[in-house]
Amino acid sequence: MSKNIASTNHELATLIKNYGPFSALLLSYNLTFDKSLRVNILKDLLQPYVTEKRKEKEGMADEFRYRLGFFNIYGEYQLQNLLFSWNNNSLEEEYLVRIYQALEKQMPDPDILKPVLLQTKARSCIKEIDEDLNRIFVDKNGAFDGLDLDLIRPVLYHSSLIEEIKELGAKYEVAIPKRFKKAELVECVLGYFPALEEEKIAELRANLLTLPPTLITRFAKDNNILVSQDLKKEEAIEYILKNSAVLAAAYRRPTSRKDYYFTEEQKQKYGLVEVRAYEEDSLTTNISAKTKDVYREDSPKKSPKEIKKSSLATFLYISLTVLATISFGLVIYFVFFAGLRN
């Protein structure tokens, strides 16, 4: 149908833009589609450009080239973001046309999408139309942003900047705070103990609120909870996964730090063999044994009371050491002074 109305991609894209966002039209017929449809269109469209960009920077230590090495397992938002970051009008128009034609083939009635090409409502840019279409592309079978659960963490961790991860949160109506207030940090930690009785939760909350943020963060790490007052990249990822409506029932905490790195099987399956730094680098492998214990499943877990007691003992030890040093200095001073007088 669309070929009879417009002969070029530009003409067809112009008609769609003149109609504007059209997800409401499809939702009125209760039509939704698996995100894999849009993901596959974006990958097919962008693959030649990605290959060219990587060749341009071949042999260079370039962060953007490194992140593009994971292109074939990008999530939906990463692909959308990559498309619009290039500001290529003809590429965007080709994308809009491919999306429209793919949806047209999925229609149970060929007349459902007819108004889009025959009516002018409110002209919109392609990015606005694409964001509107987020409403009709849905995750199925426990996926998130078009990715299987076992890929979400390593893909986002290795191929996205913190700013992009925060934008991903906004897409799923999860506002990631720049910095937690103490009470917010405590509530975030408590959210990881859904099985505890209300009385135990109240007791834990009271104990945590007596601690400074640094010790609350330590308690979180000792209990394998990725959250701190200033969210790092992996903590922002966990915040999205835990608080998004999409994964409300399927969310599970990472079993260890290795959940943020690709398995050997994944490296082979997704062609990551030539991509460096997809495994634990010196920054991770050289961390102290004390830090590593945070992610060991058999590491002992300290309660807030134990942490508080430990910190108090440390404080007393430091105080006594300082007092002893001052006393020793005073003794030396008076002995020396008395010697001078004599």
Secondary-structure map:
Blueprint: H1 2-5, H2 9-19, H3 23-27, E1 33-34, H4 35-56, H5 63-68, H6 76-85, H7 89-106, H8 114-118, H9 126-132, E2 137-138, H10 149-159, H11 162-171, H12 182-190, H13 198-209, H14 213-222, H15 233-243, H16 264-269, H17 282-285, H18 289-292, H19 304-341
Parallel strand pairs: 1-2
Helix pairs in contact: 2-7, 4-6, 4-7, 11-15, 12-13, 12-14
Describe the 3D structure:
It is globular, with a radius of gyration of 28 Å. The chain starts with a helix and ends with a helix. The protein has a two-stranded parallel sheet with strand order 1-2. It has helices spanning 2-5, 9-19, 23-27, 35-56, 63-68, 76-85, 89-106, 114-118, 126-132, 149-159, 162-171, 182-190, 198-209, 213-222, 233-243, 264-269, 282-285, 289-292, 304-341; strands spanning 33-34, 137-138. With 342 residues, it is mainly alpha-helical.
